[in-house]
Design goal:
- This protein is an alpha+beta fold.
- It has four domains: 2-70; 73-176, PAS domain (Beta-Lactamase); 180-310, Signal transduction histidine kinase, dimerisation/phosphotransfer (DHp) domain (Helix Hairpins); 311-459, Heat Shock Protein 90 (2-Layer Sandwich).
- Helix content is 55%, strand content 19%.
- The chain has helices at 2-18, 28-72, 91-97, 101-104, 115-130, 178-268, 274-301, 306-309, 318-331, 354-370, 427-437, and strands at residues 76-80, 86-89, 137-142, 148-161, 166-176, 314-317, 337-343, 349-352, 376-385, 388-394, 441-447, 451-459.
- The chain has a five-stranded antiparallel β-sheet with strand order 2-1-5-4-3. A five-stranded mixed β-sheet has the order 7-9-10-12-11, with helices on one face. A two-stranded antiparallel sheet has the order 6-8.
- The chain starts with a helix and ends with a strand.
Length: 461
């Protein structure tokens, strides 16, 4: 509109300049022409004035409409600067907080924020101010009567102008979400109560399940015990059969030897030389010792035997015990066997069960000889490693199949490659029990055709 006024003014000025002479010198026609043009200018001016009045009226209506929209909006409005100062507010925000406009405008917005939300608001405001699009802030503010109000803040950047500068301010919508927060809190409490009820019911159900599981476990244990009893009965029957088979075979040989020597002595007593008599008496004695050893093995392997459970550790000379066992086995062997004894411990005396240790060493030495039919060197070594006694007996015999090493300590078990060698299969089972009673452990290392090593580790008492 102002451009039209400027154009009209310039046109009038040009006209006046064109007639910049004494009007008294003008002709009548020129005066009429000038008067006409002035009338036209006047009419144009009146038209422009009327348009200006209409424009001003429209501007006023628009201003009133914006004022009403701004102040009567269902949400509060705040215009903030980068320092969080309130440049302008609307009636809705004033009604929401209960503050008069004089206490809000030109105040800092932090004045109205609850302490519980200040740190959160301050940490996020700069980023929100710089780029508010798509972002919201949810905080708590306090009304004039100290009531907590939950609000959500949304905003856009606007430009404002003063006499000298152009400023970027933040136009924010303040939305009361107290009811929403209240509903959410109620929902959370409802969920918590529901979870509590579920936990209680779950706990009760778990308790019932636990009791049911215990009952099931009891029944399983009962069934397992029944099955174990059945298995034990089957095992006992198998052991009985195996025992009868083994004992009938193992006892037959020494008994046959006794019978043969007895019959010879009985029939030919007067005809035999003292040396021959002594030979037959020695055979009888050896056979009796063999039977005695077999009976002792059977007594030891019996789980209810007091002999096995009667563990009596005492201070013994371990070096002398092993030396006597080696000398005894050497006496009964031929010259194709050689024995080496390396005692490397600084101490000779240890607290051990003498009877059990004698059995362990005798059995392992006897096996070393028995399972080395081609002879060879049998090495016995003793050492003290940290807090344990280490005993090793190594032979150069037939060895044990790798897949059978774990079974050799089972009663009556004999490796496949040892079926032709005499024995009950009880000795190593007794050795293992004796080592266990000492709280020790026994390890077997073996290689077919190259020999076997038994390693015993006993804790020092």
């Amino acid at each position: 509109m102002s451009s039209k006024f400027d154009e009209l003014r310039k046109k009038a000025e040009r006209t006046i300049l064109n007639y910049n002479q004494d009007i008294s010198n003008l002709s009548v026609e020129e005066i009429k022409k000038l008067a006409y043009e002035l009338q036209v200018y006047k009419a144009e001016l009146e038209i422009q004035n009327e348009e200006l009045r209409r424009t001003q009226l429209e501007l006023q209506r628009t201003s009133d409409l914006f004022f009403n929209l701004f102040n009567s909006a269902p949400v509060g409005y705040l215009i903030l600067d980068d320092k969080i100062n309130i440049i302008k507010t609307n009636y809705t925000f004033l009604a929401m907080t209960g503050y008069p406009a004089s206490e809000v405008n030109s105040s800092n917005f932090l004045k109205f924020i609850d302490e519980s939300s200040k740190n959160n608001f301050l940490s996020r405001y700069k980023a929100f101010y710089n780029n508010p699009v798509g972002k919201t802030l949810e905080i708590k503010i306090r009304s004039k009567n100290d009531e907590i109000i939950d609000i959500r803040i949304e905003g856009i950047k606007i430009l404002s102008f003063d006499d000298e500068n152009q400023n970027a301010n933040l136009f924010t919508a303040i939305i009361d979400i107290s009811e929403k927060v209240k509903k959410e809190e109620e929902l959370i409490n409802y969920k918590l109560n529901l979870e509590k009820i579920i936990q209680e019911r779950t706990s009760q159900l778990n308790q019932l399940n636990l009791e049911l599981s215990k009952e099931i476990e009891k029944r399983k244990e009962y069934e397992s015990n029944l099955q174990n009893l059945l298995n034990k009965e089957i095992e006992i029957n198998q052991i009985k059969s195996k025992f009868i088979s083994i004992t009938s075979h193992e006892f037959r040989t020494p008994l046959a030897s006794i019978q043969s020597s007895f019959e010879i002595l009985e029939k030919y007593d007067s005809k035999l030389s003292p040396e021959r008599k002594k030979e037959h008496f020695n055979k009888i004695k050896l056979a009796i010792n063999t039977i005695t050893d077999l009976l002792n093995d059977l007594l030891r392997i019996d789980k209810e035997s007091p002999e096995k459970l009667n563990f009596r550790p005492e201070k013994i000379n371990l070096r002398l015990l092993i030396y006597d066992c080696i000398e005894k086995i050497k006496f009964s062997c031929d010259k194709k066997y050689s024995f080496e004894f390396n005692y490397n411990s600084n101490s000779e005396e240890y607290i051990l069960d003498y009877r059990m240790m004698t059995y362990i060493i005798n059995n392992l030495l006897s096996n070393a000889v028995k399972f080395s039919p081609n002879g060879g060197k049998i090495i016995t070594e003793v050492n003290q490693i940290n807090s344990e006694i280490f005993i090793s007996i190594k032979d150069q015999g037939i060895g044990i199949p790798e897949d059978e090493i774990e079974k050799i300590f089972d009663p009556f078990y004999r490796a496949n490659n040892a079926e032709t060698i005499k024995g009950t299969g009880l000795g190593l089972s007794i050795v293992k029990s004796s080592v266990d009673l000492h709280n020790g452990r026994i390890i077997v290392k073996s290689q077919l055709t190259k020999g076997t090593e038994f390693q015993i580790f006993l804790p020092i008492r």
